[in-house]
Write a structure and sequence with these properties.
Number of strands: 7
Radius of gyration: 14 Å
Order of helices and strands: HEEEEHEEHE
Distance between the termini: 10 Å
Strand content: 35-45%
Largest sheet: 7 strands, antiparallel
Length: about 130
């Protein structure tokens, strides 16, 4: 089921706030999927998924090429996939938003000198929450 991004049901928003790991799917240069476990936060007002990571990771290399990406979380019969265009940022204010989102959903992350954020501008949410 696809959801109206302007009117997400409360159960979807609740599921996105619960502590669940997810998978991030980005595309390698050859077009094949690269799928890794991640923690993420979702900013409903900005329609933005944020993932903290570090500069030399493969997911950063893939996301830096642009294109599309998806995060998916599953809990029993509940699942959500959030899709959209992907970018990487090292802008301190945007990375801070990603760190804050991660801290609210999971725990306060340790400091990293090479921290960046992957952002997905969500244009589709599918699932069953």
């Amino acid at each position: 089921m696809a959801f109206d991004l302007d009117h997400l049901p409360d159960d979807v928003l609740q599921f996105l706030a619960e502590r669940h790991l997810a998978t991030l799917t980005t595309l390698r240069a050859d077009g094949s999927p690269h799928v890794v476990p991640v923690g993420f936060s979702y900013d409903h007002g900005q329609r933005c998924v944020r993932i903290i990571t570090f500069t030399p990771s493969a997911k950063v290399r893939h996301a830096a090429r642009g294109g599309r990406a998806a995060v998916s979380q599953v809990d029993g019969g509940r699942w959500l996939t959030l899709e959209g265009t992907v970018t990487v940022t090292d802008d301190p204010s945007r990375v801070a938003l990603a760190v804050d989102g991660y801290a609210q959903r999971y725990r306060q992350p340790g400091d990293r000198d090479n921290r960046v954020a992957i952002e997905i501008r969500v244009d589709r949410i599918m699932g069953r929450a």
